[in-house]
Amino acid sequence: MLVVEARSRIGGRCWTCRFPGLSAPVELGAEFIHGRPPVTLALLQRAGSAALDSARTQRFVTDGRLRAIDAFAEARKAMRNTAVLKVKDWSFATFLARKRGLSRRTRSFARMMVEGFDAADPARASARAIVEEWCASPQLGAQFRPLGGYSALLDSLAGSDVRLQSVVREIRWERGSVEVRGECLGTRFRHRAPQAIVSLPLGVLQSDAVRFIPALKEKRPALKKLASGPVVKIALRFRAAFWEEEHPGVAFFHSPAAAFPTFWTPLPTRVPFLIGWAGGPKAVRLAGLKRDEVVRCALHSLRSIFGRQGELVAIHAHDWQADPYARGAYSYVTVGGEGARQALQAPLGDTLYFAGEATDTQGEAGTVAGALQSGLLAARQLI
Prior knowledge:
Largest sheet: 7 strands, mixed
Strand content: 25-35%
Mean pLDDT: 95
Number of strands: 22
Helix content: 25-40%
């Protein structure tokens, strides 16, 4: 078995970093465990790690003051009376516009959650898929963090059969034969095998970055019905946790109109850094900005919440839509896209098998758990 990885590290859209001198990990990619997915918990246990229960107390800014809110519960109020979606799928924006009797706050948080939690454009996202996710998925329940970060789990999976910095450019295939071509540190390579598991992120599959010969014609309808959600994530380390002075124990802070509408703390670990998150259209607006401009947007957003900021001492940031090996953070279903994930996951010719969060059909799409269990399914199918 051989695993070919374009990056100089394993993990893909999981990326654990650290601020010097702080024990808590900084996740520039996936951070939370949503619900209690057996696949993630089992792998954490095998790695000698555990899931740390995460604080969920939230505040949002309104009229210059921070007030208590449960953003998920508020957004879910828009999920009442959804029978019309059984007849016809709409974009979430259209669905929300046609709802009557919703408060301005509920509309604001429903839109913010689609853009942030789902990293989706409300004008493109399937309202039917959003309703199904929010009303039936365990993802909106209990929330945990991997103790020590996702790197603890991922490092336990790495073996000597991983080839890093190996950028695949072309995959030639026919029944019973696969040839992968690419470059590793300026040197071309070719690897041959009777079968392969393709775990490219959705955004990469939708691009021409990797050429399939013959083309994946069977996958084109599914690829058109899914979208790769953009996310910009920034970690700001301060001299002191100034927010704890007036808001001790608060995990999430929301300012829906800001460029970075959500910030969170690493609670229950108490260390002086905040994570800023912009997804969907708000991340698109940040695309192409220089690092200093992104930081200014983050600090301006922070001041809209607290009216001030502490002394900033270090920064980590990443734009997942600009990352050539990701081209987006995670997937969502567009209008009329029912069945797209199943179609993307289906093997081709008992030769190519597909994995990754976008192919998950067990209710965990868009998450690390979805990626892990899709990989296990692809391996079982191949075997």
